[in-house]
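seq as requested:
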Amino acid sequence: MKPSNYKLFFLLLCVVFIFDQLSKLWIIGHPDLPIGSYWPYGGMEIIPGFFYIAHIGNRGAAWGLFVGYGFWLGLIAIGALVFIYLFRNELALRRLYMQVAFGLLCGGILGNLIDRLLRGHVVDFLDFHLPGYRWPAFNLADSGICIGVTIYVIFNFYEIRLESRKEKPTDSSL
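struct tokens:
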């Protein structure tokens, strides 16, 4: 894996990871945000009725699923990073959009993995409330993962569509 071939991948991985960790350090060190702080029992109201800063220790995965399986979630994260490295050619990581997708994804995986290893839980702090619904709190690493997966899915559907158009016979070929 020659780093110069994957500049955008490494740049985005580092950006997501660094901003994720810095934001979590700010949350952890903020005196008004002890762990367990979320609206209406604490936290910071940013946009009334919609956006709050919280401090939640998530010992599970997305939406608090798999609580108590932190060790296994950590192993899955390590496995995913190893898989992406080993299959980088098959994943077409030299393509720019794949570097964007996997840079965001890997930066997010690494950010949450470090939390699990250092703290025993993932620090979540972005807390959005929709009318009648409170979206589960999340962090910048989670955002990188979701955006990276979305980019990957969109571009793969686009490529599949292009390929299917190439394979369709035209009227003149019948």
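The chain has a mean pLDDT of 88.
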